[in-house]
Design brief:
The complex is a heterodimer of chains A (115) and B (114). Chain A is built from no helices and eleven strands. By secondary structure, chain A is mostly beta strands. In chain A, strands 2, 4, 5, 6, 9, 10 and 11 form a seven-stranded mixed β-sheet that branches. In chain A, strands 1-3-8-7 form a four-stranded antiparallel β-sheet, with no helix packed on it. In chain B, strands 2, 4, 5, 9, 10 and 11 form a six-stranded mixed β-sheet that branches. In chain B, strands 1-3-8-7-6 form a five-stranded antiparallel β-sheet, with no helix packed on it. Classes of the chains: A mainly beta (115), B mainly beta (114). The A-B interface holds A 2, 31, 33, 42-45, 48, 50, 55-56, 58, 90, 97, 99-104, 106-109 and B 32, 34, 42-46, 49, 51, 89, 93, 96-107.
């Protein structure tokens, strides 16, 4: 158990819908990262938040957005869902920028299926 | 942007054999190289990492080597065991606004036959 929690574990929804994925980082970690894992694209970085502010952005679609709340949990919002958005979405957390790379701890993931 | 190539995509070995997975990267600014193990249906877990000021790092049966000039790095697992069976991902990271964001390879499925 990494200490990172994600809900829900599984989500099945229809095209055009909107969903919200939730992540709680390890106690003491200020950074939250979101990743998408699919057979087509592999494991891809989406976005990072540090202490409530967006820190880095990767291959995140405009239909996707995220935020980190004062209690440091984060939510990833996916809207106008398409079949191709079906994937495993991971959240990871780390202590945060400290002048060097720090270990990221991954949550168990949310499996999203768009039908 | 960074591009990471990983080979082979599948590796099948007998228990006790060694396994080697190789990655190349394109951006010379990348200076941190973590390796992750992902068991079926589980989350990726960091197993070893190396920074660009080091050429080799070992942790028990696992070692990673880095050749900065050639922009390639490798994972070596000795005395493989069935529980080593998993998908292994390499990644290359460079600093960006104080953060290190990884670009992952496509993964290697390692199968260790008892």
């Amino acid at each position: 158990d990494s200490g990172v929690t994600q809900t829900p574990k599984h989500l099945i929804t229809a095209t055009g819908q909107r969903v919200t994925l939730r992540c709680s980082p390890r106690s003491g970690d200020l950074s939250v990262y979101w990743y998408q894992q699919s057979l087509d694209q592999g494991l891809q970085f989406l976005i990072q938040y540090y202490n409530g502010e967006e820190r880095a952005k990767g291959n995140i679609l405009e239909r996707f957005s995220a935020q980190q709340f004062p209690d440091l949990h984060s939510e990833l919002n996916l809207s106008s869902l398409e079949l191709g958005d079906s994937a495993l979405y991971f959240c990871a957390s780390s202590v945060g920028p400290a002048g060097g790379p720090d270990e990221q701890y991954f949550g168990p993931g949310t499996r999203l299926t768009v039908t | 942007g960074e591009n990471v190539e990983q080979h082979p995509s599948t590796l099948s070995v007998q228990e006790g054999d060694s396994a080697v997975i190789k990655c190349t990267y394109s951006d010379s600014a990348s200076n941190y190289f973590p390796w992750y193990k992902q068991e079926l249906g589980k989350r990726p877990q960091l197993i070893i990492d190396i920074r660009s000021n080091v050429g080799e790092k070992k942790d028990q049966r696992i070692a990673v080597t880095l050749n900065k000039t050639a922009k390639h790095f490798s994972l070596h697992i000795t005395e493989t065991q069935p529980e080593d069976s998993a998908v292994y991902f390499c990644a290359a990271s460079k600093p960006s606004g104080g953060s290190y964001i990884p670009t992952f390879g496509r993964g290697t499925s390692l199968i260790v036959h008892p």
